[in-house]
Amino acid sequence: DTAVSQTPKYLVTQMGNDKSIKCEQNLGHDTMYWYKQDSKKFLKIMFSYNNKELIINETVPNRFSPKSPDKAHLNLHINSLELGDSAVYFCASSQDTVSGNTIYFGEGSWLTVV
Amino acid sequence: QKEVEQNSGPLSVPEGAIASLNCTYSDRGSQSFFWYRQYSGKSPELIMFIYSNGDKEDGRFTAQLNKASQYVSLLIRDSQPSDSATYLCAVNGHTNAGKSTFGDGTTLTVKP
To answer: How far A69 CA lies from chain B's nearest CA (Å)?
Structure first.
């Protein structure tokens, strides 16, 4: 069973469209994340939720809206997609927000905006 | 200055050699340090973590931490072609709500 699963794995869409990426973890973790990895492989955190509560919101355009219906799910909705949004989006989870916790990544969602 | 900096690479070593990957960080209050490996087209996976100054060994991997110098490294002994990947250093502070800050990664190629 995949610990952190996200869908879709590949997404090609046109500029201006709205799309969502779903994520679920079955590890019983309290904390979930969205990371963005650009073409230069730089991995940067976007959001973090702990028990459905937003705790980290980095400088991300408000076109990106995360939603956590429960602590096992963290979805990412993106409005009015732009070319620069093309990247790999990784969902991840950790036990909680304690500093030493390992992060477990999903397989990534490859978003291409054309 | 970036919060976490790594040698940009790429780093190429022959099979059987020792690969040395380096990472420096700017937040002196950082407490936890991680090395993730990412194969091309795959997600990062944890290979080592270290919290205390000194060395930590796990098989062919050794993580070294020097908090005074704000430096953490990863040594891979007896490098194998299967070690060819990008290695990401990640650092957690003590007040950042669990946020890991990642370096840009160093791409390692082990040549047979």
So the answer is: 20
Q: Which pLDDT score is estimated for A1?
A: 64
Looking at chain B, which residue has its C-alpha nearest residue A48?
B99
| CB of A90 less than 8 A from some CB of B | yes
What is the tens place of the pLDDT at every residue in B46-96?
999 999 999 999 999 999 999 999 999 999 999 999 999 999 999 987 655
Amino acid letter, A41: K
Among the partner-chain residues B88, B94, B102, the one whose CB lies closest to the CB of A99 is B94
Measure the CA angle with vertex B6, ends A90 and A49; round to 5°: 30
**Does residue A107 have a pLDDT over 90?**
yes
Q: What pLDDT is recorded for position B97?
A: 57
Q: What is the pLDDT of residue B95?
A: 57
- CA distances to A88, A101, B13, B62, B93 from B96, in Å: 24, 12, 36, 26, 6
| Residue A84, phi then psi, degrees to nearest 5 | -70, -10
A2: contact with B, CB 8 A cutoff: no
Bridge partner residues of B89 (DSSP):
B35
Contact A50 B90 (CB under 8 A): no
- At B2 the pLDDT is 76
Pick the closest to residue A2 from A25, A20, A21 (CA basis).
A25
